[in-house]
Structures are given as structure tokens and as C-alpha cells.
Amino acid sequence: MSGLGSALPGGRPGMGFGGGGQDTQGMSEQEVAAMKAMQAGMESCWVKTIMSGVAGAGMGALFGLFMSSMRYDTPLSASGTEITKLPLAQQLRSGFREMGRASLSSGKNFGIIGAVFAGTECAIEGLRAKNDLYNGVAAGCITGGALAMKAGPQATLVGCAGFAAFSAAIDAYMKMPEDEVKKPVM
Question: Which compartments does it reside in (predicted)?
């Protein structure tokens, strides 16, 4: 038994489990079953959505933390008093509180964006039964439009176009042949 690659859809002989290069030789039936269950879980739209939301929230929290540390362009605190005239402990408390708020806010926003995009893309891919550039473009349009919907129809259209274009650019880059990624034509 050289692997399950030839037995799974899209797998090629000699590629191991699911075409991922993992060899199942020497594995017990229970280990192979567990590997199949993990792969099935990773292909589930719900799991992809949750994982993207959690990863987006984590990256957003880090981004918010970093951006809040760059935000002190004025010596005034939120209450209007000068930060430099406060005791050090109060300055630190105020700074950490602001960093926490920014981190939480960015984390929630990035988490929502990641979850909506991944869930929408997975659902579209399942409905179309194709894995191509159009899935990401459509998911980007739906995500951008949904996020901008409260601001009106013009903002919805701009959000749709912006997210779709960004998704198309990222997908096109990620699916580029290896030699073009290393040496892009400019």
C-alpha cells in the first residue's frame, strides 16, 4: 500500500494520502481513518469558516495592537487632558487600555471579514463544483458588499468592486506558475 492518493478524487499514484505527499504505509487502519476524518473536516465549509474567522481575529488583534502603538500623534488623552502631565502609571494604564480597545475592535472586524469571505467562497465553490478564480471574485464581491451595505447602495457597489478586485489580484498571484512568482515581469 503506497498511499491513498490513487483512491481519492484528484489523487495520483505515488502521491500518498490525498495527493498531499503523506505516505500511509506503516499506519494502522485507525490512523488512516483518523487522517481521513481530519481531511474531511478541513474540507467542510463550517470548519473553513470558523478557522478563517479565528485566524482573521488573531491577525486583526495583532494589527490593531501595532496600529494603536503608532496612534499617539497628539499629547491629549481621550478625556482631553495632556498625557505627558499624567503620572507614569496612569500614562501606561491609558496606553494599554487604548491598545486593548484597538486590538479588540480590529480583531472583531478582521474575524468577521475572514469568516464571511471563507464561508461565502466555500459555499460558491460547492454550488459551482469548480475551484477557480471566479469563486474568490464572487466571494469578495459579496463580502465587500455586505460589509458596506449599511452605508447605502453606492458604498455597497464600491465595496463589492474593491473586495472582488483585491481577491482577483491575490488569487491570480497565488495561482501563478512558480517561475513567474520568483521573477515577476515589471
Answer: Mitochondrion inner membrane
Residue entry with cell 491629549 = 76
The pLDDT tens digits for 134-186 are: 999 999 999 999 999 999 999 999 999 999 999 999 998 888 877 766 666 66
CA dist., res. 93 & res. 21, Å (int): 51
Mean pLDDT value across residues 28-46? 85
What is the rounded distance in angstroms from the CA atom of residue 134 to the CA atom of residue 101?
Answer: 36
**What size, in residues, is the chain?**
186
How many CA atoms does the CB half-sphere of 107 hold within 13 Å?
Answer: 15
Chain-centre distance for alpha carbon 8: 27
Taking the CB of residue 70, how many other CB atoms lie within 10 A of it?
7
C-alpha 67 chain-centroid distance: 19
Q: Which residues contact 102 (CB under 8 A, 6 or more apart)?
A: 64, 65, 67, 68, 71
Query: What is the distance between the alpha carbons of residues 18 and 129, in angstroms, rounded to a whole number?
Result: 18
Q: What is the grid cell recorded at 16? A: 500518498
CA–CA separation, 41 and 69 (whole Å): 38
Q: Are 22 and 3 in contact (CB under 8 A)?
A: yes
pTM of the complete model? 0.70
Q: Considering just the CA atoms, what is the radius of gyration of the chain in Å?
A: 23
